[in-house]
Amino acid sequence: MLRSMYSGISGMKNFQTKLDVIGNNIANVNTFGFKKGRVTFKDMVSQTISGASEGDGNRGGVNPKQVGLGSQLASIDTVDTQGSMQTTGRVLDVGIQGDGYLVIKDSSGMEKYTRAGNLFFDNNGNLVTASGDIVQGYNANGQLVGIKIDNPETISNLSIGEDGVISYKKGEDTFSDWTIAIARFSNNGGLEKVGENYYVHTNAAGTIETGRPTENGAGKLVSGVLEMSNVDLSEEFTEMIVAQRGFQANTRIITTSDEILQELVNLKR
Q: What's the mean pLDDT in 178-182?
């Protein structure tokens, strides 16, 4: 009787968390490069009333008798599927088609990763994200450093190739001395979200492989487009209904258990 009440409470908490994740997904339906979350459950420990026993020549075996004690969160996954591409026509808007993340360094030197490719040149010629953090790339010497082009206001014919090479003209001279870097991980789901469309590496993400687009399995860069969120509103609303009904069912368990307790209290009048 009391076990059922606590089972209902555990179910309510889990569905509250599921609704929190769904709400965040819907709130970020138009966030560039956003990857939706997904909640999974698992059962909690079961109380064994009597154990199993094997049969012999005179008597058959008996299965264990167990009562479950509710559910708990199994995982909150980041679903790393490809989002649709939205055409913008702006050269410095880049979408990643395939596996990989842009490599970013903030003002403290911390390395971060993002799929949001709305980039800009700041007043010093650094290629930066919307948050002002510098995009990393390979220079003419093959070094991985922050991308910087002096006097970006004087360049023309700017283009970014599928292989990440930035080409531009200054006067009559043509330059292709920068390549945008892409990082790949053994387990993309192991990256930790830190806000502002950024991820940071964790041990669960495995090894980091930083390289050039289109090489060694890395995705290609598409200039003039941005990757949209991979949130499917129809799926999220369906999951919202499932979570709502699951929450209601668990509240009914608690109500029913309370009514039985009330009957017990009223046995002595």
A: 96
State how far the Cα of 94 lies from the Cα of 119, in Å rounded to an integer.
8
> What are 69-88's pLDDT values in tens digits?
999 999 999 999 999 999 99
Instruction: Please name the residues in contact with 222: beta carbons below 8 A apart, sequence gap of 6 or more.
Output: 85, 94, 95, 96, 97, 162
> Phi, psi at residue 19, to the nearest 5°?
-65, -35
Strand-pair partners of 145: 137
Nearest to 79 by CA among 113, 111, 36: 36
Closest C-alpha to 166, from 121, 105, 107, 217:
121
List, in sequence order, every residue forming a beta bridge with 37; answer none if it has no partner: 78
At 127-163, the pLDDT tens digits run 999 999 999 999 999 999 999 998 888 888 999 999 9
Among candidates 194, 192, 152, 197, which has minimal Cα distance to 175?
152
Taking every pair of C-alpha atoms in the chain, what is the biggest distance, in angstroms?
Answer: 101
Find, among 261, 219, 244, 184, the residue nearest to 82 by Cα.
219
Structure tokens, 212:
């050039």
Please, which residues have CB within 8 angstroms of residue 87's CB and are 6 or more apart in sequence?
224, 225
